[in-house]
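User:
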Amino acid sequence: MFAIYMRELKSYFLTPIGYIFCGMFLVVSGMAFAQSTLLAQSTGSVGQYFVWLIIIFAILIPLLTMKLFSDDKRNRTDQILLTSPVSIIGIVLGKYFAALTVFGVTFAVNSFNFVLLFNYGTPNLLSIFINILGVFLLGAAFIAIGIFLSSITESQLIAAVSSMGVNAAMILISMLASEVESSFFRTILKWFSVVDRFTPFTNQMLDVSAIIYYISLAAVGIFFTTRVLEKRRWS
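Assistant: Predicted structure:
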């Protein structure tokens, strides 16, 4: 698993993908940070900024995941990988953690923006850390969804667009739920909404159920990816 992890981690910076993701993430999130916390409000409020981050992740994270399996399938190198002395779960986790590392390091660098808030007062550090945890877990879930969609196609473009579509749908479920009259179906839709799940974090609440939900979502994405690869190994 470690060899695959290192290979994928290096590949991000042997191709433009890693640089494009890091650059776009830092620039766009920096603009969102300035707009939501410094220029617009001049306060220590960070809730709106993290909501913007969710939208940014939905668009940019597919850039990290689109090539992870689709590229191997397109180049016909997937069978070499599948017949290597590495378990299927090791292959999936190696690629998953490589994408998660690039995402996590970029997110950590971006988080230094919060130092600027001390120029405007005394920001609530607990609120910042809780929101960072929630957004990181959500990003980890988006990555798992992305690698699953990458595993079922050989087109990087299709993998990226479908990942963006699924991520967007999970965000827009919250808006759809508000239009549903039935309280039963509205509750079900809100249960799947990543935005509604994130709301407690913006209110400085460490919601254990939301943490479990994001981890479970990532686990489901990884599980489905292993099933796809197992089927391909024996086909």
